[in-house]
């Protein structure tokens, strides 16, 4: 267990696992970012993903308590925090989730008591700074916090159903419209009145003052097709705590980007882009994105124009645009890999083994985008200068089609200039092009590729890929 005042991120990982190992949990490895048996899910976005079939009862793992450090990605699909990166202190695309589980074994009392013991007993967080939420009808959890733990009632917030507001807290969890579900309780840390933001449940809860650190879900119901909730025969616990958020607190910092691991990556991004101001937001984005990109690549994703590969391409291109803004017009992003291996290779040995592969995949994408980034930015500037309020859909489409700017990249740049993008107009332009392609096909004109792709077809066949293909991964144009 850690004794120093400022434990490293690596120390926190092992503190967590050690704590739950002592409580008879089986330590399991992180699953890959690409879910093994769930084609409906783009990426592993929480610790429970690899246990889905255990909760549904179709898989019996041979243990009833588990704990792990799960790599997660929230950059596409239902959970997408890509647009928060660089804007909040607490969101990443890629992050690590510390989790402990009970599969029909312990329930609310132990889950809450152990969370509190780890935070305040082992890690010595000041209880006065902790605040908890419970689902509004969950009197059982409320009573545990109040009577067993001794949290004052004014720091236990009852939260109702999320009515769809983008940031409203939501303390009821369900896997799908039917099946296992239940209330949750969440633990927040108050970073102090100097930081804007209100407590959970308040109108300004999206600020960075009260930061959610741990979510404990109590799966106790089986929702029927008619909506009724039947009790599950063996209730389960599913918890998730953001490693970077808890590291920030334990290292006496406010934001995730100030922790040891990120400061190391940010320093490298600064060196590679020749940036002296370490607080520059673009450095944070680059540091965030190298983690997402490298782990996607080791988990079998390569840049492409659809599905998971397109999410990767979008993240890489966003990182490159930030490097470009810092004045770095040469390929630099792949050079971040070495530092990432240094920072995270101990926790993820598979990273080091694939360093060369990651670098080559990133470099190929950097070289491809370098051909159009500069001209695309010039076009963006012209368009932005004559836009009022929003970039027209057709212009966003031209940036996409001719310069390889994914529309979310255009929206990201536009946002920095106080502009929106007409997304409906973009979709319409995209659809018109698909129609034209279909019509051309019907009349024997063949398939027409987006201009960006067509222009680069020869490049996608170059020898740089033979090495990649030799690794057994699909190479996509
Ligand atoms: P928030 O409300 O802050 O967006 P969340 O409620 O979406 O977080 P959960 O789905 O409850 O998060 O995930 C469990 C834990 O994982 C959170 O309590 C938080 O510590 C961490 N976490 C969630 N999203 C992120 C992210 N994008 N980056 C870093 N940590 C995260
Ligand atoms: Mg969230
Ligand atoms: Mg939340
Ligand atoms: Mg939550």
UniProtKB/TrEMBL annotation:
Segments traversing the membrane: none
GO-annotated cellular components: cytosol
Keywords: Aminoacyl-tRNA synthetase, ATP-binding, Cytoplasm, Ligase, Metal-binding, Nucleotide-binding, Protein biosynthesis, RNA-binding, tRNA-binding, Zinc
Cofactor: Zn(2+)
Residue ranges of domain Alanyl-transfer RNA synthetases family profile in the record: 7-477
GO molecular function, one term: zinc ion binding
Entry keyword Metal-binding: yes
Annotated function: Catalyzes the attachment of alanine to tRNA(Ala) in a two-step reaction: alanine is first activated by ATP to form Ala-AMP and then transferred to the acceptor end of tRNA(Ala). Also edits incorrectly charged Ser-tRNA(Ala) and Gly-tRNA(Ala) via its editing domain.
Domain notes: Consists of three domains; the N-terminal catalytic domain, the editing domain and the C-terminal C-Ala domain. The editing domain removes incorrectly charged amino acids, while the C-Ala domain, along with tRNA(Ala), serves as a bridge to cooperatively bring together the editing and aminoacylation centers thus stimulating deacylation of misacylated tRNAs.
Record-stated family: Belongs to the class-II aminoacyl-tRNA synthetase family.
Protein name stated in the entry: Alanine--tRNA ligase
Organism whose genome encodes this protein: Marilutibacter penaei
Residues of the full protein shown: 1 to 477 of 882
């Amino acid at each position: 267990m850690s004794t120093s005042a400022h434990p490293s991120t690596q120390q926190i990982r092992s503190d967590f696992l050690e704590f739950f190992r002592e409580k008879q949990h089986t330590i399991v490895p992180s699953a890959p970012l690409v879910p093994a048996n769930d084609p409906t899910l783009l990426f592993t976005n929480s610790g429970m993903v690899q246990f889905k079939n255990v909760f549904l009862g179709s898989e019996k793992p041979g243990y009833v308590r588990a704990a792990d450090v799960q790599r997660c990605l929230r950059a596409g699909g239902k959970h997408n925090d890509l647009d928060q990166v660089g804007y909040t202190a607490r969101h990443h695309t890629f992050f690590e989730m510390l989790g402990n589980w009970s599969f029909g074994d312990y329930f609310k009392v132990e889950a809450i008591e152990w969370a509190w013991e780890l935070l305040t007993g082992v890690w010595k967080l000041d209880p006065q700074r902790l605040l908890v939420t419970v689902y509004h009808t969950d009197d059982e959890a409320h009573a545990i916090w109040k009577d067993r733990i001794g949290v004052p009632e004014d720091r236990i917030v009852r939260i109702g159903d999320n009515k769809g507001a983008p940031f409203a807290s939501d303390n009821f969890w369900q896997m799908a419209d039917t099946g296992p579900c239940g209330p949750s309780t969440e633990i927040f840390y108050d970073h102090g009145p100097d930081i804007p933001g209100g407590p959970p449940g308040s109108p300004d809860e999206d600020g960075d003052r009260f930061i959610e650190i741990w979510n404990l879900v109590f799966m106790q119901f089986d929702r029927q097709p008619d909506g009724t909730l039947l009790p599950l025969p063996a209730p389960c616990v599913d918890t998730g705590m953001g490693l970077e958020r808890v590291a920030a607190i334990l290292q006496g910092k406010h934001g995730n980007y100030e922790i040891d691991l990120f400061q190391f990556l940010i320093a490298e991004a600064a060196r590679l882009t020749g940036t002296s101001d370490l607080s520059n937001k673009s450095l944070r984005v680059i540091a965030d994105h190298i983690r997402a990109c490298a782990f996607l690549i080791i988990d079998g994703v390569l840049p492409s124009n659809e599905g998971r590969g397109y999410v990767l391409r979008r993240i890489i291109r966003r990182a490159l645009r930030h490097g470009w803004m810092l004045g770095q017009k040469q390929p630099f992003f792949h050079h971040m890999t070495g530092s990432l291996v240094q920072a995270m290779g101990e926790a993820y040995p598979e990273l080091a083994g694939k360093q060369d592969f990651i670098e080559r995949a990133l470099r190929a994408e950097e070289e491809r985008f370098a051909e159009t980034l500069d001209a695309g930015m010039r076009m963006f500037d012209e368009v932005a200068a004559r836009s009022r309020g929003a970039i027209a859909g057709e212009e966003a489409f031209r940036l996409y089609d001719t310069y390889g700017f994914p529309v979310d990249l255009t929206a990201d740049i536009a946002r920095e200039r106080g502009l929106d993008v007409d997304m409906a107009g973009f979709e319409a332009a995209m659809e018109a092009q698909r129609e034209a392609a279909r019509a051309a096909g019907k009349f024997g004109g063949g398939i027409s590729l987006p201009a960006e792709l067509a222009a680069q077809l020869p490049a996608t066949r170059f020898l740089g890929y033979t090495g990649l293909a030799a690794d057994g991964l699909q190479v996509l144009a």
